[in-house]
Amino acid sequence: MTNKNALFDAFKQTKYQVAGHGPRNIQVLKDALENVDGEQESDMYGNGKIIEDFQDKIANYLGKESTVFFPSGTMAQQIALRIWCDDKGIKKVAYHPLCHMEIHEQDGLKKLHHIEPVLLADKDSVIRLEDVVNMESDVACILLELPQREIGGQLPDYQTLERISAYCRNNGIKIHLDGARLFEILPYYQKSAAEVCELFDSVYISIYKGIGGIAGAILAGEKDFTEKSKVWKRRHGGDLISFYPYIVSADYYFDQHADKMNQYYEEAKELAAFFNECGSVSTKPNIPVSNMFHVHFDMAKEDVVPVLLSVYKETGVGLAGNLQETSDKKCYFEISIGNKYSTIPKETLRKVFQMLDEKVK
Amino acid sequence: MTNKNALFDAFKQTKYQVAGHGPRNIQVLKDALENVDGEQESDMYGNGKIIEDFQDKIANYLGKESTVFFPSGTMAQQIALRIWCDDKGIKKVAYHPLCHMEIHEQDGLKKLHHIEPVLLADKDSVIRLEDVVNMESDVACILLELPQREIGGQLPDYQTLERISAYCRNNGIKIHLDGARLFEILPYYQKSAAEVCELFDSVYISIYKGIGGIAGAILAGEKDFTEKSKVWKRRHGGDLISFYPYIVSADYYFDQHADKMNQYYEEAKELAAFFNECGSVSTKPNIPVSNMFHVHFDMAKEDVVPVLLSVYKETGVGLAGNLQETSDKKCYFEISIGNKYSTIPKETLRKVFQMLDEKVK
């Protein structure tokens, strides 16, 4: 009999973890601050060198005219869609059924902005060109999430992206990128961030996924768009007097991790292959297209937990802190590769998957 | 001929400043982190020991059942009023014409929540009992800001507060405290925070006024109320994965400054008296009732700037970094006493006011 948090507790005790950059603890901030001059002045309500320099740096990286730092992607994306809706005078947008706004934001888009979503594509697939072309509603904006996180981080092929973008631009529809994991998809597409962003009128990126910062988001677009977003940021209560704790750490970890996405992508493919060699286990996607994937068990959660517990105990390698149940009473967990994976000795990894294969057969 | 920022630049060069706790720079965060264990885990979307402990500590201090940490007062207060409006089914609230929501938030309350304000009292006065009793509209909630910042930090007498509170409760109107500077008024009222908060159904306090933290706010009330506020916090995009940089510093500076409000209040009265001894200068209020007041000159801004520049240069004491113009072409600045005032040698202060008096006569 294991208690409810047994898996989480055991995971936290493991010496190695396959996912992430390491624990989310205060040392993350301390490390980022260590070589920063204490005399450096705080930003003040969105102004000041510290925030403007970072915004300019990311604008340059994304190839966009202007960017604005936001406390969260939730805030940044609602505001982006609101601006496009107001511009066009239509309070409708289109996005995937498992879009973050649809399932994780307590309906902020509807409750605060009264914007109605049109759901594109089946929830188990990525949005295709025909989903966009066959849409019956007139919408102000289409949001694409790359990769589509809730289905394991799947991606359309690049040509599809280009075609959707061209269709939107030919039809007066704005196209917004949920690029929470934009950095993470560049190795698969073999494109620069600026090349991908060029297909979109507005772009959100997260500071604390692959980049490994503490919190925060960037919204990018033309100056006219970002200036409007600042007004809405104040309305939302997101125009803080000081963002520098997030910005200093965002800048520090951007420099450390932005160039390591290819490594994470290659390691994700390697790790997914290990899982797929085990009986009753499969990954989604089968071959990852970013640093992330989902690990599905063809078994019930209560049968998987003891297996994982024994693997963690025997090998010191943690695979996941919790398991999500699916509608058909099976279970899965999510993996996003960061710095931790490469610290695991290959011999130890082999032992993990040998054990896992034996126990889930 | 002085350039636009000459006063601000000269102020930043001064050795002493009469207001505040010191520069808003990264050292503020470094100091707060110095003795914090790096192994301590981050909060996660509003949960975790680090955020819950701080929320409990402040709940206890305020005598409220529950509190929630918010990124900003703008967000916390809009949400408080929205909850009371939804509860009562009336989208109207009453507040002062110079309420923060009315003049500093880009109309977030109206644009996001569609709540209509009823403006109580003349803009140069605090809200009186008769303003509340004679109100013709049916409102869900009344907001009182203590002290009323935009008029120099004025306060109603305590009996008036008690009467307004009793009236609201007898008439089914919720009463919300904009307590951005709640700590700062306790010495004048000779009350505990809990005694003042008992008069209100919901309370917002700021972390970065007298407390001297980096950013953030607390919303307090009964558990049912604060649980609803968490849902709205997520909708606003304010439910960040990690608030610990703000919380660690809030806790650190709360412990340093919360008990010093009586000192700041006494110093504010002393400093205001110095100003009032100078010709053409007067403070609002004449005798401060908190750590803050406004310094008004019966002179035009362009005539005051050179006076201040010479005082700063001669004495090394900075009085203000900028001057606000009034509708009658005079000018004023705001002072909030913090740790810096007591560092100024008395002899130097005397010289400041001797010079000021001579130059503005």
TrEMBL record, chains A, B:
Its cofactor is pyridoxal 5'-phosphate. GO terms for biological process: glycine biosynthetic process; L-threonine catabolic process. GO terms for cellular component: cytosol. It holds the Pfam family Beta_elim_lyase. It comes from the Bacteria. InterPro entries: ArAA_b-elim_lyase/Thr_aldolase, PyrdxlP-dep_Trfase, PyrdxlP-dep_Trfase_major, PyrdxlP-dep_Trfase_small. Keywords: Pyridoxal phosphate. Belongs to the threonine aldolase family. This is Low specificity L-threonine aldolase.
